[in-house]
Design a protein that fits this description.
Order of helices and strands: HHEEEHEHEHEEEEHEHEHEEEHH
Signal peptide: 1-28
Number of strands: 14
Shape: elongated
Oligomer: single chain
Radius of gyration: 24 Å
Number of helices: 10
Family: Belongs to the bacterial solute-binding protein 3 family.
Distance between the termini: 72 Å
CATH superfamily of the largest domain: Periplasmic binding protein-like II
Strand content: 15-25%
Keywords: Signal
Main location: other
CATH class of the largest domain: Alpha Beta
Low-confidence stretches: 1-25
Pfam families: SBP_bac_3
Length: 261
């Protein structure tokens, strides 16, 4: 019986593995399937104005919906919007129900560990909102001892509490602003995008942004990992709609401002 040295055995194993890798078919990128189907399947809520919602006629509209349509146009395919509840959207992406999700999905380290994101296409900051005639609240520090109307489970509530505010629980942005307007709360800490939407709808409402955080939270188009061609194509599409003015027109329509910075 003949025996081989450890080095010769190791060399043989490496050669066998390299040969197997060379003969194995390369994993297809999701972009190939999207172009073959001529359809981009987009997961979205349909109940989250002004990003994705149904208008009076029942048509699906919103900032994210129009961004999705423009991205699909740049890819040369038809957008297909598939609606689902927020807590199931990312799971649906994982289960290959969607090709991408476009629904104000914040870019976080936890999500990036499992999924890929496009470059950010929208950014939001925490803003401190007061009545327009208030002059005593000019910073987050000025919330100390004041009443802040907040959705109690939100990050904004934690920020208000950390600033020394007494929290008044609400069901969301609209109710929070109403409490500020009626004087039942001194302020609310909330999302700059929600404020821009509110101001767009009610430009004469006597509220203002008294302060804002310097750092912005970014949202991106989320997709399954290990699809570099799809990510590159979507990033290129977003760059193209910024360059041709489409993005600016959509942002002005829904927010009256540039929301990419």
């Amino acid at each position: 019986m003949r025996f081989f040295s450890a080095s010769r055995v190791a060399a043989f194993v490496v050669a066998a593995l390299l040969g197997a890798a060379a003969s194995a078919p390369a994993k297809a990128d999701d972009l190939d399937a999207i172009r073959a189907a001529k359809t981009l399947r987009i997961g979205t809520e349909g109940t989250y104005a002004p990003f994705t919602f149904h208008d009076a006629s029942g048509q699906l509209v919103g900032f994210d919906v129009e961004i999705g349509r423009k991205v699909a146009e740049q890819l040369g395919v038809t957008p297909q919007f598939l609606e689902g509840k927020w807590d199931g959207l990312i799971a649906g992406l994982d289960g290959k129900r969607y090709d991408v999700v476009i629904n104000q999905v914040g870019i976080t380290k936890e999500r990036q560990a499992k999924f890929d994101f496009s470059e950010p296409y929208i950014r939001a900051r925490a803003v401190l909102i007061t009545r327009a005639d208030r002059s005593d609240i000019k910073s987050f520090a000025d919330l100390k001892g004041k009443k802040a109307a907040q959705s109690l489970s939100s990050n904004f509530a934690r920020l208000a509490e950390q600033s020394g505010a007494e929290l008044v629980g609400t069901d969301g942005f609209d109710q929070s602003v109403q409490l500020v307007l009626t004087g039942r709360a001194d302020a609310t800490v909330n999302d700059s995008l929600s404020f821009l939407d509110f101001h767009k709808q009610k430009p004469n409402a006597p509220v203002k942004i008294a302060a804002e955080q310097a750092d912005a939270d970014a949202s991106g188009i989320i997709m399954r990992k290990n699809n570099p061609a799809l990510k590159a194509a979507i990033d290129k599409a977003l760059e193209a709609i910024r360059a041709d003015g489409s993005y600016a027109a959509i942002a002005q329509k829904y927010f009256g401002a540039d929301v990419s910075k």
